[in-house]
Each structure stands twice: as structure tokens, then as C-alpha cells.
Design brief:
Order of helices and strands: EEHEEHHEEEE
Low-confidence stretches: none
CATH superfamily: YjbQ-like
Number of domains: 1
Structural class: alpha+beta
Radius of gyration: 16 Å
Largest sheet: 5 strands, antiparallel
Mean pLDDT: 97
CATH topology: Jelly Rolls
Number of strands: 8
Shape: elongated
Length: about 140
């Protein structure tokens, strides 16, 4: 079995952002040379997410609105976590809903996606550097 481990870095300009990282993952699969295997893409911060969905602007706006309704950023004193001096309790909750990682099959050297599927990095406490782990294993 062969493997490749890489890290992607992000520093979004906004507090909440959705970044399509599909092409970056596809490049890493080519670099790995793996034709049949699995690709793990994992957010390494507890206020960020990796998920699969459609690359459609309206859907991303809907996500942002829905997540803000579920866990509004303010007032920040509504959260016990923020009593520690933080102001990102909502980001932790949003990440919990959106998930930590995805695993995608690799078949014939490409991501084995369904129609419209793309990989996204979700940021809920941006404006600082964060990383995503990409681990590709297979033959």
C-alpha cells in the first residue's frame, strides 16, 4: 500500500467562508499516483469543517443563514464558552453540525463522486491561519 500526506493552509478574509478545495485534492491524488484507494480530507481546527455538497452560491448563502439561525454569533455572552475570553462558541457549534472530515473513494485515479459533488472547506471563525490534512492511501 502507498500513501501521501499533505496539508492545505487557509486564512479566510471573512469570519464565515466556504472554499471549494476539489481541484486541490484532485492535484494531490495525481501527485500520489494512487489509482484505487481512499482520500481523507480532515479539518484540523475545531472551528472549521470539511464537507461535500453542490458548488452553488445560493446553497452556500442558505448554509450561512441556517447555521447563524442555529447558533448565532451574538450576543456572545449567551455562551458559557465565551466566558473564558473567547468569542467563538458559535463556531464550535457550527463545525459540529457541518462535520470534521470526508472520505472519498479513488477509482481509476480520480475521485469517485456522485453528480454535483464537490469538497468544501468550511470556516466559522476565520481571519487566521488554519490547516486541513489530506491523507491518500491505496495502490
Amino acid at each position: 500500500m502507498n500513501s501521501l500526506t499533505e496539508y492545505l493552509s487557509f486564512n479566510t478574509k471573512t469570519r464565515i467562508a466556504f472554499v471549494n478545495i476539489t481541484s486541490q485534492i484532485e492535484k494531490l491524488i495525481k501527485k500520489s499516483g494512487i489509482k484505487d484507494g481512499l482520500c481523507l480530507v480532515n479539518a484540523m481546527h475545531i472551528t472549521a469543517s470539511v464537507f461535500i455538497n453542490d458548488n452553488e452560491k445560493g446553497l452556500h448563502k442558505d448554509y450561512e443563514k441556517w447555521l447563524e439561525e442555529l447558533a448565532p454569533h451574538s450576543p456572545i455572552d449567551n455562551y458559557d464558552h465565551n466566558k473564558t475570553g473567547e468569542d467563538n462558541a458559535d463556531a464550535h457549534l457550527k463545525r459540529q453540525v457541518m462535520g470534521r472530515e470526508v472520505v472519498i473513494a479513488i477509482t481509476n485515479g480520480t475521485l469517485d463522486f456522485g453528480p454535483w459533488e464537490q469538497i468544501f472547506y468550511g470556516e466559522f471563525d476565520g481571519k487566521r491561519k488554519k490547516r486541513v490534512l489530506v491523507k491518500i492511501i491505496g495502490e
